[in-house]
Amino acid sequence: MSFSGEIKAELCGAEIKKPCCLGAECYGAWLFSRCFTLRESAWVTECAPAARRAMELCAAGAGVSAQLYYAVSRRQKPAYRVTLPDPSERARLLEAFGHSGYETNLRINRAPLEEDCCVQAFLRGAFLTCGTATDPRKAYHLEYAVPHKNLAGDLYTLLGEIPAFRAAPAVVQRKGGYAVYLKESGQIENLLTYLGAPQAAMELMQVKMFKEAKNNINRKTNFETANMDKTFSASARQTAAIAAINDTVGLDTLPPHLGDLARLRLQYPDMTLRELGERLHISRSGVNHRLQRLLELGERILEEKGVENIL
Ligand SMILES: [Zn+2]
Fold it and tell me: Which domains does the chain have, with CATH numbers?
């Protein structure tokens, strides 16, 4: 099942405790469908529980009976067509929520949404009809696909007013409508919990934690690899300088504190400065300082021999 399907199935299990919320969820589910009009129309969903709930809400919340048909979705998947074939039933549904069907602009009527509980139910109903969420393993994206511009604007405002948390959605025009969407994982999590899908919110949180842990490991590995490269190239220069000293004047001509380090470096080209220091009981910066001296000596010898630079 898709992540959207999981969310919707979970939302359809949410119990409606108050009669006021029954109407509000019905209003949300039908206002955002393409059936909230006097014209005959239908909306198609792949989610069987959502189609069933929309029908039940319609009967219980507005006393109107909808029809359900089998259909095929745009993605060629089994789907359900929800419709109100009877014109008087269509008018009754509109009237139940203060609409006439003759408005030039469809807007959200706030009258049935006075209580906070009803806003919650309304947004849940709307999500069942026009909501989708991308699999969090791919991206963080939750959206309401809204057929009309002003309706999208009203939904945008309403989402930003949720008392439990203030969502910060964005609106974009799409082919055939508008999308009101959230892209921030924390906000999506909050909204899912608020709507009544805490399991889906938990799943999203777990995916996010897993992704973050994986990123941390990658970042650490990259950091260590980069450091290792630096160690190797620095070591190659030092080794070349020490080899130049060894091949010309010999390491025995060096003062003992430099000679010991030179021999150790030749023997262990991949040791870090810290490790070299530990062997010689001197600090990392002490090692660094002595290696610089060896580099200078070696480079001077090579220069005299006409080799310009080491590596
Ligand atoms: Zn309510």
Answer: 3-196 (3.10.28.10), 224-304 (no CATH)
Q: State in Å: Cα 28 to ligand 1 middle.
A: 12
Distance separating alpha carbons of residues 178 and 40, to the nearest angstrom: 22
Distance 62 CA to ligand 1 centre (A): 15
Q: How many angstroms does the Cα of residue 20 sit away from the middle of ligand 1?
A: 4
200-207 contacts, C-beta under 8 A, 24 or more apart: 200/3, 200/6, 200/7, 200/10, 200/133, 203/3, 203/6, 203/136, 204/136, 204/140, 207/136, 207/137
Using a cut of 0.90, tell me whether the model's pTM lies above it: no
CA of 232 to the centre of ligand 1 (A): 68
| Residue entry with tokens 């220091």 | 277
Distant-in-sequence, close-in-space partners of 248: CB < 8 Å, separation ≥ 6: 301, 305
pLDDT in tens, 108-163: 999 999 999 999 999 999 999 999 999 999 999 999 999 999 999 999 999 999 88
